[in-house]
Amino acid sequence: MTIKSAMSRFTTGVTVVTTHFEGQDWGMTCNSFNTVSLEPAMVLWSIRKEANSYQAFTQSCTYLVNVLQADQKDTAMRFASGPQPERFANQLTERTAQKNLRLKYTVAWFECRLAQVVTAGDHDILIGEVTGYGTQEGQGLAYANRQFGVLSAFES
Asked: Vertex 126, ends 124 and 132: CA angle to 5°?
């Protein structure tokens, strides 16, 4: 068993992180998203140093984390690979004042100012100060055992 296989047992939420860098929109699926601090509001996520979008995310000053809704598995798969323009094709989006694209119909979003990049092995951890956020009703998309799903509450 590999470490990747063992980590797949940990259930996470699924996000798509977007940025606008040098006139191009960039987006990627990410499940390494987490809260760092509530005051000030800060979040983190990690990116592989070999990712084709590495420069865009580590050198742009802002990014936006879209927390996917339970029925957005296709969106998660679309942003996991392929050319950047194809990832955004036919996606309902809204451009923010910071020029990042916010995906419509997500359960939450967090726009961030890049505060720190921390090197950690073959990934870098991007820590962002939250400058804007929003939510809407719905259930988040979960990922565990290399499968998408939803969490359900235990009956009391």
From this structure: 165
3-state class (DSSP) for residue 90: coil
The pLDDT assigned to 121 comes to 96
- Rounded Cα distance between 11 and 41, Å, is 24
136 neighbors 107 (Cβ within 8 angstroms) = yes
Contact 50, 58 (CB under 8 A): no
> Across the 156 residues of the chain, what is the mean pLDDT of every consecutive 10-residue run?
88 96 97 96 97 97 98 97 96 97 97 98 98 97 94 87
Among 150, 126, 156, 130, smallest CA distance to 40 is for 130
Q: Give the pTM.
A: 0.95
Helix ranges restricted to H, the chain: 3-7, 54-59, 73-78, 84-88
Calculate ∠ Cα 71-77-82, nearest 5°.
Answer: 150
